[in-house]
Amino acid sequence: MKAAVFQGPGSIAWQDVPDPGVEDPGDAIVRVDVVTVCGTDLHILKGDVPEVTPGRVLGHEAVGTVVETGRDVRTVRPGDRVLVSCITACGRCRFCREGRCGQCRGGGGWILGHTVDGTQAEYVRVPFADLSTHPLPSAVDGFDAVLLADIFPTSYEVGVLNGLVHPADTVVVVGAGPIGLAAIVTARLLSPGRIIAVDPDPARLEAARKLGADATVAADEGPEQLVADLTDGLGADVAMEAVGLPETFETCTRMVRPGGRVANIGVHGRPATLHLEDLWIKDVTITTGLVDTTSTPMLLHMLAVGRLPAKELVTHRFELGQMEEAYDVFGRASDTGALKVALGGPQHTAVQVPDPPAVA
């Protein structure tokens, strides 16, 4: 089969690799029908995730069809259409039993495209398939569902839930890429009073407005002053960091009010300064986290009944064999306007998806 193989910092190749096979009784082999590229994959390419070594098949999000299962798999069988979660859960260790599957110590956690071969391939081996795949209703489109493998549960759990968003809160989302946009969408579920999006890219700020941000501001146009003006100088109740850069994290800590919450979602490859000389007196809570995907069934139900605008985040579609082109388009988002790229289906060329409709 062919797969996207990490060659080392700055390089991937779509090349031949051995077909995966069942290695453990809980494994499923899934034919990949739809897959996407994540911002974390770009961090890997930059060398920010040293655990990923050359030769690794990348990717941790997919929709596919089960073609083979190990003898212990009970909840899916060959022919089933499934969502492959970015988090693999053994279901037995302390952390899985506590619902912290991202911290699994039984052989799971974030392993796909990280410590084992991932989903950016024609086929993928999924360990602990009973707890790491989700059967999909036939009415759910694969290009929509693939966004629930990672970005929607990540934004909801690590951003909205960790940030303890409440009705009437002022919420600032720093970074209007896919994760930040999904954070805006899922924060709206908790009825905040105001959502403010911060990003340097005008196109992404426009997408943020269409998906529910009440105010937007360019990163170089005084976001801290805007937040102060809109909150009578108090600051945001919740500031979500959705980029993974020292400067964006530090911006969040300056915009949060006394007693507020900073929810870090971004993947960081460099140290950030924690200004405790300013924060120690403000009763600020800072949270970090890797998604656990415990919210995935709920989000899938919302998608199935039309309550989650996932489709609007996919701006470019490719055939699976166009993986290198998809990486290039996604990696140059400021030039290409890419929000989320998806690969699969009969497309032979990239398709620019129309702008999303306004959210009422």
UniProtKB/TrEMBL annotation:
Lipoprotein keyword on record: no
Entries under Gene3D superfamilies matching the protein: Medium-chain alcohol dehydrogenases, catalytic domain, NAD(P)-binding Rossmann-like Domain
UniProt keyword annotations, A-Z: Metal-binding, Oxidoreductase, Zinc
GO MF terms held by the record: oxidoreductase activity; zinc ion binding
The protein's required cofactors: Zn(2+)
SUPFAM superfamilies: GroES-like, NAD(P)-binding Rossmann-fold domains
PROSITE patterns referenced in this protein's UniProt entry, alphabetically: ADH_ZINC
Ranges that cross the membrane: none
Residue ranges of every copy of the Enoyl reductase (ER) domain listed in the record: 8-343
Keyword Cell membrane appears in the UniProt entry: no
InterPro entries in the record: ADH-like_C (IPR013149), ADH-like_N (IPR013154), ADH_Zn_CS (IPR002328), ER (IPR020843), GroES-like_sf (IPR011032), NAD(P)-bd_dom_sf (IPR036291)
Recorded family membership: Belongs to the zinc-containing alcohol dehydrogenase family.
Name of the protein in its database record: Alcohol dehydrogenase
Lineage of the organism: Bacteria, Bacillati, Actinomycetota, Actinomycetes, Kitasatosporales
